[in-house]
Amino acid sequence: MQDGRVELAVPGTDHRLGLVRHGHWGRPVLVFPSEGGRAEDFAERGMLEPVQWLLDAGRVSFFCVDSLDALTWSDGSLSLEERARRHGAYQAWLEQAAVPWVFDQLGGRHDLITLGASMGAYHAVHFAFQRADLAPLTIGLSGNYDVGQWHAWGERGQEAYFANPTDYVAHLHGEHLDWLRSRLSVLLVCGEGQWETHPTGALPSTLRFGELLRDKGITHQLDVWGGDSAHDWPWWQRQLGHHLPRFV
User: What is the C-alpha separation between 197 and 205, in angstroms, rounded?
Assistant: First the structure.
């Protein structure tokens, strides 16, 4: 079941981004689209079909959001540092507009699962690391978690560092790391098939990020599918159908 599209203002900009809800009960899942995508993509690309039975049973609700990638990570005319700075507006929208709207729909605060495929996996995992208080479980399908690999140019400063999971996770320590160990769980899924290595870099990045999580003692699972598993929607459908039931 789908509610209508809602659009909310992006703080500090003239832009508005949309959300679409599927389902009315169950564990809330915040869904990020693939690069440049919209909230409607999740349903239009068939991602609901393998988990429709969970929706029908009232075990899960999906809250799908638009991306702002065209103005941030996908704008190759900008330096990596400027792309990361602009990404801050998206993070602000998620924290100040999107998630409060989700909680209002739910009638109160609930632990979220974040979910995404391809660049959406980056957004899902990064948001969970930034706000594990809101999202203690994240699922990344075929993600590349190193923004420095995204046709990056220019000097890399603080903005890029704190927007890049491969950078900041490597340097986690102390009480914050201890808290993440107690709070956060990460599921990384990737195939070995077409487009997972070239041109996306998803497979090597996923393997590297899994190593970082292991080294830091952060709860995680790394699930690598075989050589027939491509960087494409039919495989993400299967992966979601395989994994989500145990979390909701």
Answer: 9
Distance (Å, whole) CA 146 – CA 235 = 22
pLDDT per residue over 94-126, tens digit each?
A: 999 999 999 999 999 999 999 999 999 999 999
In contact, 191 and 185? CB cutoff 8 Å: no
Tell whether the torsion through CA atoms of 169, 115, 134 and 69 is positive or negative.
positive
65-94 b/e (C-beta count within 10 Å ≥ 16 → b): bbbbbebbbbeeebbbbbbbbbbebbbebb
Phi, psi angles (nearest 5°) of residue 177:
-65, -45
CA-wise closest residue to 90 among 17, 5, 181: 17
d(Cα 5, Cα 128) in Å, to the nearest integer?
24
Largest CA distance in the chain: 50
What's the order of all strands across the beta sheet hosting 27-32? 6-9, 16-22, 60-65, 27-32, 113-117, 137-141, 185-190, 219-224
Contact present, 87 and 73 (Cβ < 8 Å): yes
% the chain with pLDDT above 90: 93
Cα–Cα distance between 16 and 114 in angstroms, integer?
Answer: 21
> Is residue 174 left, alpha or beta, with left meaning phi > 0 and alpha meaning psi from -120 to 50?
left
pTM: 0.96
